[in-house]
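Ops channel
N.P.: pipeline sanity check, posting one input/output pair.
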């Protein structure tokens, strides 16, 4: 056991002295430092919703204008035609769409109006129920006030009252209940009416992807070192079982330093559950060790491996999504991507 530990210690020192491994380690540390120095910026979040008002009713036109000027998580904006609304939803420029057809305002107070508002959504629409709540809350407020005034003006019960004063009382009473905290409305955490939603953002540096690639590449370099030593006949006097664990020691001595550095780097830049991340990193490192051992059994000549290694690393960068996700262009490439460990990290 002592001999194995001594050999492992020597191989770790040798791995750390290799320029490629040292460059990858320093790159990860440098990326973490750069990421920490980048200042966070606030980005407003909103969900775009298209609004088309074909109704000539003044209250409906005013309601549409109020929606467009409203400060909300939903960014209501006006479109000029039904075709434009369809296109915006299909192209995901709008998350939902509301069409107020001509004649809706005049018949909205009827028990079963013939003309109804049409809501357009797609499978990717976000918060469609909340969006409809906010839209119809504003429409209902305008229509309810008008309907109450019409009914009050027509009712003989109020014939002896000053209707002007009565309408003011209706407005005040309705506003009281409308703004009551007992009625649903969107609020922020401080208890105020929703005004804005922001999140902190930093420049997107794919540190986790680089870490996954570097751990995998370290394992590949460990194989190259073992095959080179084999060509130089350093292990000819070892038994078959000893050659097995020498393969393993070469790979693990290359992967372990990269794994130890990758874990805190990812934790510092991404945050999250430290224990869960540790399990993920260790599991990924184990997959890379198994992959490297399997490849080492298939390719046993250093001359052949030196030709295959650049291809494997290039394909890992492309298929592993280190630079960009190729599977978004062609779904069939996903099967090919699954042959390279960086894809899973």
């Amino acid at each position: 056991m002592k001999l194995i530990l001594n050999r492992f210690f020597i191989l770790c020192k040798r791995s750390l002295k290799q320029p490629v491994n040292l460059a990858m380690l320093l790159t990860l540390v440098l990326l973490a430092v750069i990421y920490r120095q980048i200042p966070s910026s606030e980005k407003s979040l909103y969900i775009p919703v298209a609004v088309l008002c074909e109704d000539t009713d003044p209250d409906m036109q005013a309601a549409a204008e109020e929606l467009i000027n409203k400060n909300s998580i939903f960014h209501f904006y006006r479109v000029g035609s039904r075709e434009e609304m369809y296109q915006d939803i299909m192209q995901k420029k709008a998350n939902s769409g509301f069409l107020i057809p001509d004649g809706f305002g005049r018949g909205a107070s009827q028990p079963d109006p013939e003309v109804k508002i049409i809501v357009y959504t797609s499978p990717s629409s976000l918060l469609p129920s909340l969006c409809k709540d906010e839209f119809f809350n504003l429409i209902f407020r305008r229509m309810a006030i008008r309907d109450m005034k019409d009914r009050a003006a027509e009712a003989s019960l109020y014939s002896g009252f000053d209707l002007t004063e009565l309408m003011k009382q209706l407005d005040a009473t309705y506003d009281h209940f409308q703004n009551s905290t007992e009625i649903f409305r969107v609020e922020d955490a401080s208890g105020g009416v929703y005004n804005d939603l922001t999140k902190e953002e930093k420049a997107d540096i794919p540190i986790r992807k680089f870490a996954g690639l570097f751990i995998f590449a370290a394992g590949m370099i460990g194989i190259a070192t073992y095959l080179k030593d084999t060509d130089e006949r350093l292990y000819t006097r070892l038994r078959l079982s000893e050659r097995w664990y020498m393969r393993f020691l070469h790979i693990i001595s290359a992967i372990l330093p990269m794994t130890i550095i990758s874990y805190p780097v990812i934790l510092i830049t991404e945050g999250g559950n430290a224990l869960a991340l540790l399990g993920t990193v260790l599991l990924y490192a184990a997959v890379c060790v198994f992959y490297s051992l399997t490849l080492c059994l298939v390719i046993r000549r250093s001359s052949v491996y030196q030709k295959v290694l650049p291809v494997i690393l290039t394909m890992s960068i492309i298929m592993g999504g280190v630079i960009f996700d190729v599977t978004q262009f062609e779904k069939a490439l996903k099967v090919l991507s699954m042959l390279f460990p960086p894809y899973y990290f």
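N.P.: looks fine end to end. The beta strands are 41-44, 47-53, 74-78, 96-100, 118-121, 198-201.
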